[in-house]
């Protein structure tokens, strides 16, 4: 039986990971967020009520689950405070079972101001960030000047360091970006309620996780964003600033690869992306309207309309390799209901050399080559058994397995926790990856 399962997105984010994590989480286990920040938006529907989590691991909504925000995450104390309060309003009390890494870098107001000012200055070359300060916060980490969660423990020292770093950023904001300067004292004042709230949660989360492993606890690692938003493996520079592929889990938690039993790749039955950047199978026609409307393809963090397109199996195969995936979960299958035909991109044609290519080396100058499959008219939403799916939908899933050479272990057929076809539960199958 598997103990430690990682769940991550194989596309450009928004694959529906939150719901999958929520549906696989077992009581008394651990749920871990390991990279990214509150740029993520994990939407869960529990008893008909929609809850969007940005920073707190989705699994924590189950009883007796310990939530961990580990060192790889960039943490905005104010966003964390707001999310804890939002959950309390919905009668989820998590304060005593959420731990945050002492070494996670902070996102503070100057990161947000810098993110927004830079995007403005880039004009038509903007990246389309979420404007949450993610990039600037990771820059501070790499530049070794970040304030980290542990720095919240001593207000006096925090104040001295804040004054210096705000001075550094004010030079850029005012002189280069022509923005207003910011006042470190206001930042500090605004931080105080969140410092009060999270003080007791600050821990060595690597130690907690290894202790959990020692005691045979089950752990779900929840990836944020998707593989092609990865800073190294994504469609650079149109990416986020963390490693959203599997490597980000290892460095972002201090849990080594030998402890991972199963890695689940979550893949939408089609493709979406928010923000700018290459997207070979992007559509601009009625099918785009169908995906947008039926799939409610609007960002859960920024509300922006997501770009949509057919499933890109070339990209998916690459993602499977980069992430050492054990199996796939196909989400939003029901969004394909009612389409006459369904396409899968199986190769790219380079528009300059006209060469056919099945590797995603440069997806900027390519056009997709499609396989066309018959669609289905019946409703698949809410179906919980493979045998209840129409034959065309089963063929579509089988074809994905054939192309990718890994099993589809789960299929999501609707937004609710229980709208799932569970073919093989990642926790209950034999360890198979390492
Ligand atoms: P940043 O992460 O805010 O710096 O944004 C960089 C790029 O990643 C932009 O294209 C965002 O739209 C995208 N992005 C960041 N987080 C998510 C997410 O959770 N889902 C989908 N796209 C995201």
From TrEMBL:
Keyword Metal-binding found: yes
Lineage summary: Bacteria, Pseudomonadati, Pseudomonadota, Gammaproteobacteria, Enterobacterales
GO cellular component: cytoplasm
Organism of this sequence: Buchnera aphidicola (Muscaphis stroyani)
Subunit structure: Homodimer.
GO molecular function: adenylosuccinate synthase activity; GTP binding; magnesium ion binding
Location of the protein in the cell: Cytoplasm
Protein name per UniProt: Adenylosuccinate synthetase
Enzyme Commission number: 6.3.4.4
Binding site for Mg(2+): 14, 41
Chain residues that bind IMP: 14-17, 39-42, 130, 144, 225, 240, 304
Record key words, sorted: Cytoplasm, GTP-binding, Ligase, Magnesium, Metal-binding, Nucleotide-binding, Purine biosynthesis
Gene responsible for this protein: purA
Purpose of the protein: Plays an important role in the de novo pathway of purine nucleotide biosynthesis. Catalyzes the first committed step in the biosynthesis of AMP from IMP.
PANTHER family on file: ADENYLOSUCCINATE SYNTHETASE
UniProt KW Magnesium keyword: yes
Main location: cytoplasm
InterPro entries (UniProt xref): Adenylosuccin_syn_GTP-bd, Adenylosuccin_syn_Lys_AS, Adenylosuccinate_synth_dom1, Adenylosuccinate_synth_dom2, Adenylosuccinate_synth_dom3, Adenylosuccinate_synthetase, P-loop_NTPase
